[in-house]
Each structure stands twice: as C-alpha cells, then as structure tokens.
Fold each of these.
Amino acid sequence: MAPAEPALAPAEDAQLIAAWQAGDERAAAELVRRHARAVARFLVGAGAPDAELDDLVQETFIRAFRAVATFRSQCQFRTWLLTIGGNALKDLGRRLARRRVVPLDERLESKDGDPHERTVAGETEERLRRGLTRLPRMQREVFLLRAQQGLEYGEIAAALDTTPGAARVHYHHAVKRLKEWLK
Amino acid sequence: MMLDDGVHDEELRQAAQRLGAAAAERVDVERTAEAVLARLRAGDAPARSRIRWIQPAWLRAAAVVVLMIGVGTLLVHRFNPPTVSDRRAARAAGGEIGDMSSGQLQTVLAALDEPAEMPAVHAAEAGLEDLTESQLQSLLRTMEE
C-alpha cells in the first residue's frame, strides 16, 4: 500500500532539521510545507474538530521544532510529527473537557464542515470517522499510521514506543472493531 | 503492502486514506509555515506560559497542603489540654500514694524492684540450692499467688 503523500527520504529531512538547529528558518518553513497536510489528515482521522485543525497543525510543528534535539531518528521525522500531533490533540481534548461537560467522543468529533462535502465523502468514511473516535487512543493511532499513512509495524512501534508485535495486535483489534461498527 | 484479507479491509483502507483528505487540502501550508515561524520567534508565550504556570502551581498547592498538615499536627499535640478523665486519673493516683505510710511505700517499692530480680531465679538457669533466702521467699510468694 502506498501512502497518499510519499514520505521524503530521511536524509533530506535530517539535513533540514540540522539547518533549523543552526538557525535557518527557511529549513523550518520547508519542513512545514512538506508535512503539514499529512499531519492535518492524521489529525482529522484522529478526531480533530475542523475549527481547531489549523491551530493543531501549527501547535504540532511548534512542539516539534522546540523538541527537535530529542529526535534521534528512531523513526521518520513525519512519523514523529504525527505522534506529536496526537499528543497535541489529546491536550486539546483535556482543555475542552474542562470547559464543557459532554462526552469526549462528541467533543473530538467534528460537527463542522460543508454538509454537501460530507455527503460526497461517503457514508463509509463518515462512519469510519465516528468509529475511530470510539477506539482507544493506541488502537486509533496505530490504525491511522498503518491504514492512512501506510507505515510498517516497525516504524509505528518505534514512533509509539511499543513493539512491532504489539502494534500488529492493536491494528487488528482496531480493524475488528471498526468492521463491526461499519456493518 | 497488504492489510488484512478480504474486501472489507480494502474498503476500510481506502476510507482511511480518504479520511481528512479534503480538510488537509484546505490547509494553507505557506500561511501555516509563516504562522509557525512567527509563533516560534515570539516564543509562543501563551502556550509556554500555560505549561510553566500549571506545574509550579500544582507543586505550590501540594507544598501548602503538606505544610498545613504539619503545622496542624504540631498545634494539636502542643496545645491540646489534658482531658477531664486524664486529670481525674492523675489526681486519684496522687491521692492513693499520698495516703500511704512509709512502710507501705517501702513494700510497694520492693514489689516494683522484684521483676528485675526474677530472671535470676529462673529454674532452667539455676537450681533452688543456688538461691538466697530472700529469693526463695519471693519465689514462694509468687507460687502461692
């Protein structure tokens, strides 16, 4: 399965990261251009509200650039970004939880967007989106990294600090549940 | 790369790949890059200050709670007045001792000394012939009781 947006060679990202660490802002901007849409797709799949999407993408890159010294190339830069995005989304969920007393799934599930676009997108996609919000976070992220981003289990395991075997199990649990809900 | 076998898996994979595609296309990457750089230059004060504020606040709250518990415990022990029953017991004990004669007091003192001497007359450690007369008398009194 090929990812919708092919990941760039790690060496190229590594060069840009080194340039950013040396103070080159153009390198940071290029990293944003390369990965922002993949981050956005992942965040939407993980339940990010449309209204918060731009801010969440920005927050993901800001956190990544600040913590880039801790990135040890254990996985691709994009994969690392996606896990940071997952954390940013989780923090948003907590903030929203303090403001409103409604179930988390409903909060993370977007009610925005063009209704016509939603209709065109298809019922399966919409039900998948709803189903993903019901999964435990680990299962949801493993599923998205595998099915949406096209990553191998080894890469997923490195990003989520687990084993490839555990990632495989999480994925199959997610698929099984989603199939039940999509029937 | 295959996911699982079956049509459902392929449908699921395709749906997952479509998920968020339209929203991602709406993301203006140039504007996002500019905004990220601007926030980085500005130190992104709101986000960072929130994180820095929360952690010390929790620590301060925990420290205040620990301090209050410690001070409270100290005050309770220091200033808790003796209860009525404590005072009655002390008064009763003092009264009884005060009513005793000097002979009675000596008997009481001798009785209080006895437990310290008793281990010396343990049957397993010494025979009866090794005991002094007073020790034998103490032993007899104990057995008669």
Amino acid sequence: MDARSIVANGLTTQNPGLVQLLGLCPLLAVSTTVAYGLGLGLATIAVLLISNTLAALIGRWLLPEIRIAVFVVVIAAAVTAVELTLAAWLPAIHAGLGIFLPLIVTNCLVLARAESFASRNALWPAMLDALAMGAGFMLVLLALGASRELLGHGSVGAGLDDVLGAAWSATRIDVFPERHGLLLVLLPPGAFILLGLMLAARNRAAQRTQLRRSPAIALGDSRA
Amino acid sequence: MASRETDANGTRVLRAALTLAAAVAAAVVLLALVHDATRERVASSERARRAAAFDRVLGGIDYDNDLLADRIEVRDPELLGTDASVPVYRARLAGRPVAVIIESVAPDGYSGSIRLLVGVAPDGRLLGVRALQHRETPGLGDAIEERRSDWIRSFDGRSLGDPPPGRWKVRKDGGDFDQLTGATVTPRAVVAAVRNTLLFVERQGAALFEPMPTANG
C-alpha cells in the first residue's frame, strides 16, 4: 500500500472510531472533554507506534495460531513500560493522563492493527499506519470530547493544562454555566447517542460521495 | 500416515508453545528491567506528591517537626476503611500537638477504594481533605480531585458537630454536602470516610500524639 492510501485509510475510509468501530470502550468512556480526548489520543498514538513497530519486526516469524496471543503480551508489556517510564521521568504528564494509559490495553484497535496490518507489512508502512490510525481515532475523540464537554459542562478546553502543560490553563472557554448542562451526554448512554449521530452523518456523507462518483454502482444497478 | 501427521502436528504445537513462552519471558525481563530502573524515581515523586498534599491538608497552620519521621501506624478496619494498617503523621509546634494527618480509605467508591489524606486539629476541626489516589470516572467522580473542582474543600473547617451527626451525608441522602454532577456514589463514599475518620480521631484523643518520636523531631 502506498503512503497516501495508508493515511487516507486511517483518517477517513477505515477510520477506527467511525468505520471500523474499534476501541469504543475507551472512546466512549473518557471522551467527556477536549482535554481528555487529546490525552487519550496522544497516548494511543504512542502505543500504536510501539506496537506496530514490534509487530512489523517480529510478525513474520510467528506461527499464525499464536500470533494474537504474542501481540497481546507485547501490547500489555509496552503499555506498562510506557506507564512506568512516564511515572518516573515525566510525572506531571503521567498524573495528567492518569487512567488513560492502562485503558489503552482495552483498545482492540491496537491489536487489530498489529495483527491485520503491521505483521504483514514492512516497518515504515506499519509505522505510518500507526500514526494514521491513531490520528483518525484522535479526531473522533476530539469531536466527541468537544461536543460532550460543550453540551454537558458548558465549556470547551477545560483541563488542557493537565495534558499540555501549565501554559494552556488559560485556553478554556466557558459558553454557559455548568448547571445548565445536559447531564446525559456526560454519561455512557449519551456518548452512544452522540457517536450514533456522528456515524449516521458520516455514512450519509460517504453515500453521497459514492452516488456522485458512480451512481449505478451506488444504487445497486447490476447493469453498470 | 497418521502417526507422522500427529508427529508433525505435535512439533508445530510445541513450536507455538515455545514461541509464546519466549515472548512472555522477554516481556517479563523487559518489565523487570524497567521496573527496577524506575522504582527509585517513582518512589521519590510519590513522596514529593505526598509532601505537597500534606501542606494542603494542614490548611496553612504552623508546625516545626519532620512530618514524615513523626508517624505511627494504626489499624481500625471499620472506621479507617481498610484492613491494613494506616499511617498517622503528627504535626507539632514547639512540642505541642497542632494537627494529625491520617491516610484513611473510602472503600466504597464507584470503582474501588479511594485513598484520602485527612488533616484534623486536636479540637476535632477538619483542616483539609485531599484525595491521594482513586480510580473514579474521569469527568464525573474524579471531581473529588482539587485540580478538577473545589468540592473537596467543602470539608475545610467542619467537625463532627458541624454539620450535626444526622446531616453528615450528601444532599440526596438528606445531608448537607453537595454531590457532584452525575456522580453520587463517589462523594457519598468520601463523605462517609471523612466522617468515620473524625470519629476515629475523637475516640483516640490524645493517644494519637503518643508516643513522641525518640530522636529529636
């Protein structure tokens, strides 16, 4: 696969959050603010990079029946090592990311990329795929985080200093007081509903694009 | 023939098992190395965090002893929320007891135990409460953290009589303490734990400040 299609895959056509629907557990659980979405997105990209790199390097030497088991071990070890390293050398970031780091192990996107792409491709495409898929995941995280924070807390950008450093503590915008917020969107059911709406919008847009490009195929016309 | 296929199959299974074992062994070695390399730094940043938290739960009162050195261990599963022994740090000014800091636990948080730091003056007044460690839901229960919201400061200055015993609960349960947006279990657990810690301090009384440290504190 060439670089352009790898990137397009990760960001749009095979977007993990809106198309493949992978990693929904952490996606819905922690996307309550922009800051949390950013934190989880960056951490996921880091883990994806490590995991895809290792999978590309060792994948071809593994028998198919234990490949997934080995990848699970690799991913869990990588996440733990990253967490310990951050706790020791970058404690502020570790405290800011908090629970997000261990949560990445539950994200089946990481395992899916290792198994279905990284282990079957060369090193550079695997790393590019990690960046593209991670970025695509983060886009959905940010969109969900922004809408849930706005509708639920009445603010946008609260807590960014936890993830990006003290300089960002002033970037918060308060649109309306929190007590007028819609509690539902801060809870899992609301997250599902919002994600569902985003999925519907994405599917509609994709359908329209398909219709424009090749109407006969899109409409199921077998004569085309 | 059948036996040769079984042999080949057996070799394959053995190879698969050995590969998996090798991967696990490599992971264990890697993690042991990383753990070893990071242990000291993690411990010292943990100590620094605790020291900073001490200052906040003491509410700015004066003391002149070494808090970390002047500690005892107590055990009260019912009131302190854990079967393990709990450290109690004593703050003194010119030898006089001025505060006690207890690392009690709220065992019934939404996602497990919440470790608290509770600062109490000798007259039973709360100097401050902070959440040391928890796994509550990001965006909801984690508002017990000071950096996320002011809620934890609603304990400042309170005591067992203020609010009266029947009102040491969250508003939803008929008490005086606010709950958090979208999270009731978490604040309920913290309020109960703080109340129990105050009860413990009241029952222990002056005994909490004994024995004095042997070295010059």
